Amino acid sequence: MIKNKEHAFYNNTELKQEPLFEISSTSVALCFGKHQQLYSLVSVAVERQSELERILVSVFTGVPCVVLLTVNAIILFTLRSKQVFRETSRYVLLTNLLISDSTYMLLSQVVYILANCRVFLSYPVCGVLILSIALPQSVPPLTLAVMSIERYVAVCFPLRHSSIVTMRSTAAAIALVWAFSCVNVLIRVALINEFPFEELKTLQMSRVCDTFVMFLIPAAAVYDRAFNILVFAAAGFVVISSFIAILFAARSASTNKRSARKAQNTLLLHMIQLVLILTSRIFSPVSVFLFQVMSWISFVRMMNVMYVLVVLLPRCLSSLIYGLRDQTIRPVLLSNLCCGVKLAAKTQISS
User: Fold this and answer.
1) pLDDT for the residue numbered 82
2) What is the pLDDT of residues 17-42, one digit of tens each?
3) Which run of H or E residues covers position 236?
4) Phi-psi domain of 33 (left: phi exceeds 0; alpha: psi -120 through 50; beta: other)
5) CB 311 within 8 A of CB 283
6) How many Å separate Cα 157 from the centre of its chain?
7) How far apart are CA 224 and CA 344, in angstroms?
8) pLDDT tens profile 55-71
């Protein structure tokens, strides 16, 4: 009963107190849907937090982000420390995966801290930040698809692997992945420009900057959903198809059984990595559901926990699991990780 009253008060007073955009009713009618609903929930939740709560949230999300970025940096340093890693296609692709994941984590944390500290940006600045997050967001699943194809070629065409999978072809594949992501950003820019900004009284935002604020028209939300389905469906199809092809190839007498088995395990790992990356896409629908069944205080706390576990953590675990599993990388990576821990401990003792 108390929870229902709290939700009723929250919805009737806070969300309806002021429109999302101070513009004509015709333009306001364009801004609706679950994305805008969640944006309103997040904005009002931030506004109702005390100063102490904002500090605690910043620390709670900032410390894990720094730790995870440090782990990613150590893995990246490991991959760049030896020539064999720099000249092997799958490690170059892993480096690309690390860079995109780390960039996404860093930019997401910047936006999260700005929103938590109630820093109101202008629409152009917010748009640049959100589009910068969208750029590396689709790179990991596509990179995993390319890595799966590389394993397929290594097992099914071992004699031609060195001629097909070269540093030049790997660079071309990475360039295509980033080009595809750039096209996605350009389409989002075109959709944002469809919004009648000239009807705004000011370009200064009245609420915090968030990913959902860029869904200014229904077409933008539809495109975002369609694009994510397309990317993950295509990546999943490539990974699963490669796994099945290697599974059949393993039954052939001419195929190296041990190599095929290792490739199968690697592709299973790619599937797990894809699922980890996909978890960040369930943040929005799960948040809307949780708001309907939880009290306001519990909802705000759960949002912060979900952000760390669903958005940040998978972007580090994906590459870390791969690095610890790979027999070539693991000794060097463990050595670097241990040195990093020892150095941090010495610094803490000396201070």
Assistant:
1) 87
2) 334 444 333 333 333 345 555 555 55
3) helix 218-249
4) left
5) yes
6) 33
7) 41
8) 887 888 888 899 999 99
